[in-house]
Design goal:
Layout (H helix, E strand, L loop, with lengths): L7 E2 L4 E4 L6 H7 L3 H5 L10 H14 L8 E6 L3 E8 L9 E8 L8 H16 L5 E7 L3 H9 L3 E12 L2 E11 L2
Parallel strand pairs: 5-6
Antiparallel strand pairs: 1-2, 2-3, 3-4, 4-5, 6-8, 7-8
Helix pairs in contact: 1-3
């Protein structure tokens, strides 16, 4: 008998769950948003079917890796895939430090969804990784909405990082946010 896919409940409408092959069309549709591209470092533009296929192969492979799922889909009970959130395992599974990143499809922004997702995911990480004491999230300085999401989710601003990122040949400033286990 096959085990049910793991899930992290966020609220009555939203869960975090593994990405699925049937997410390909939604990935292509949502990740071709110019605002999302401007506010993420590694999402390519245009986001193609090949990019979606490569992502889905990557996240499928990580399910069997030590530590399991690092990248979760954000799923709405009516709309299916609406975003993603994940951790980077900066210092390994037993490390004290990690970083998260996330994205949310345009139709669902500004509704408080991402704040709830970040709060729940941060809580889940602290519950499931006993050595973890610090979770970082870097945002572009030109993305104050993401900084507000993190603040509402319990992260604190720790610094302004000049020319920390290089994207399309342009150096971009960033803001370092962090949440410390209490």
């Amino acid at each position: 008998m096959q085990q049910p896919a793991p899930q992290i409940p966020v609220n009555q409408s939203i869960i975090l769950a593994p990405f699925q092959p049937e997410d390909k069309a939604a990935l292509i549709r949502y990740l071709n948003d110019p605002v999302l591209y401007a506010n993420t470092l590694k999402v390519p533009s245009p986001y193609t079917a090949i990019d979606a296929d490569e992502w889905l192969v990557r996240v499928e492979a990580e399910k069997d890796a030590p530590g399991g799922i690092a990248n979760w889909s954000i799923r709405h009970h009516e709309h299916g895939l609406i975003g993603g959130i994940g951790c980077f395992l900066k210092t390994g599974l037993e490390g004290h430090l990690d970083e998260i990143g996330y994205w949310l499809a345009e139709p669902f922004r500004g509704k408080g969804i991402m704040t709830e997702v970040v709060q729940r995911y941060t809580q889940w990480l602290f519950e499931h990784r006993p050595h973890l004491v610090r979770i970082e999230a870097g945002v572009f300085a030109h993305n104050p909405a993401s900084e507000r999401v993190l603040e509402k989710a319990g992260f604190q601003r720790e610094g302004y990082l000049r020319k920390i990122h290089l994207k399309n040949g342009v150096y971009l400033d960033g803001v370092m946010m962090a949440c410390i286990r209490c």
